């Protein structure tokens, strides 16, 4: 068994399915790619994806259930970041491959520019604009 397939050997079916389900949605993948830059507040992710806060929260809960992100609360805001070392090797490899494969993609490039603008604002400023 090669190293690539060895990562599957010790995983339960539901773990593998949760990871692929989480990665199988454009909005969730865009959020994960944005989190490469560091932790983001839900309001920043909401602004980036141009989705309702409840929709973003649902997407983030799916990512969290798959073990791809972790969260913590700071004041009124919930922040997310990549799970890092706690993430299953399969998920880490899939995220790296997705990131490499999508370099230069129009949506990813647009998201990077938009995220740069979003990060110029504090969560307070961002939330008050709405």
Notes on the structure:
The chain has helices at 3-9, 13-23, 26-34, 42-49, 53-65, 89-101, 106-118, 123-128; strands spanning 40-41, 69-74, 77-82. The chain has 130 residues and is mostly helical. It has one domain (3-128): Winged helix-like DNA-binding domain superfamily/Winged helix DNA-binding domain (Arc Repressor Mutant, subunit A, Orthogonal Bundle), CATH 1.10.10. It has a three-stranded antiparallel beta sheet. Strand 2 and strand 3 (77-82) form a beta hairpin. Helix 2 (13-23) runs antiparallel to helix 5, helix 2 runs parallel beside helix 6 (89-101) and helix 4 (42-49) packs across helix 7. It is globular and about 45 Å long. The model has no long low-confidence stretch (mean pLDDT 85).
What's a concise summary of this model?
The protein has 130 residues and is mainly alpha-helical.
Main sheet attributes: strand count, strand direction, barrel closure: 3 strands, antiparallel
The overall pLDDT average reads 85
Helix content: 55-70%
Oligomeric state, counting identical vs distinct chains: single chain
Number of helices: 8
Cα-based radius of gyration, to the nearest Å? 15 Å
Give the CATH topology.
Arc Repressor Mutant, subunit A
Principal-axes geometry comes out as: globular
Q: Give the CATH level 1 class.
A: Mainly Alpha
The CATH architecture can be given as Orthogonal Bundle
> What is the total tally of β strands?
3
How many domains?
1
Arrangement of strands in the largest sheet: 1-3-2
Order of SSEs: HHHEHHEEHHH
Roughly what fraction of the amino acids lie in strands? 5-15%
